[in-house]
Amino acid sequence: MSLIGASLGTAFDGVWARFTGRLEGLDDAEYLSEPVQGCWSIREDPDGRWRIDGAGGNAPTPGPPPVTTIAWRVGHIAGMALGGFASQLFGDGSLTVERILFPGRAAEVSRFCDRSYRQWRDGIAAVDEERWWQPLGPRWHPYEESNTVDLALHVLDEVVHHGAEVGLLRDLYVRRHQLT
After folding, report:
1. pTM for this one?
2. Could you give the CA distance from residue 42 to residue 138 in angstroms, rounded to a whole number?
3. DSSP string covering 35-56, please?
4. Is the Cα torsion angle 9, 114, 153, 172 positive or negative in sign?
5. What is the pLDDT of residues 98-123, one digit of tens each?
6. What's domain 3-35+49-56+64-178's architecture?
7. 3-30 pLDDT, tens per residue?
8. Could you state, in order of their start, the residue ranges of all structural domains in the chain?
9. Which of 3, 88, 98, 161 has the most Cβ atoms closer than 10 angstroms to its Cβ?
């Protein structure tokens, strides 16, 4: 494993432990709770498959970004950022927002997150020193001029900031009857 891979791996492991620790005790009501009208979430389609609103963050948003549920944030972090980028960077690129099996129940979240994290974490552990610094290229638009370090830092930022938002939503949910 390269030195940068080891350092990034340590950072990811710490952030991941903090994020998944905040998911402990999550139930379905809280997972899908919409604190305000117009939230983006995951929703069950007529075929029984759970789909993520706003293409998981890839759709343009008019005006201010919508508030998102814990379910949406979990889907964005584990499905889009970790799973999707791992598929594109380390696999065949076949995992798209349309193909992700988003968890519709809180009991499914841990397995969904762990699977996506393992794909990402195993992938960055295998990157050699030279590859970290190579441009990603045209198929990575809008990241085509970025390198693998840039992408890994972007993914880390996604996990950190959306993970913090999950923590805040959990804190507010417990105190929802105190909110005015």
Report:
1. 0.94
2. 30
3. SSTT-B-EEE-TTS-EEEGGGG
4. negative
5. 999 999 999 999 999 999 999 999 99
6. Up-down Bundle (1.20)
7. 999 999 999 999 999 999 999 999 999 9
8. 3-35+49-56+64-178
9. 88
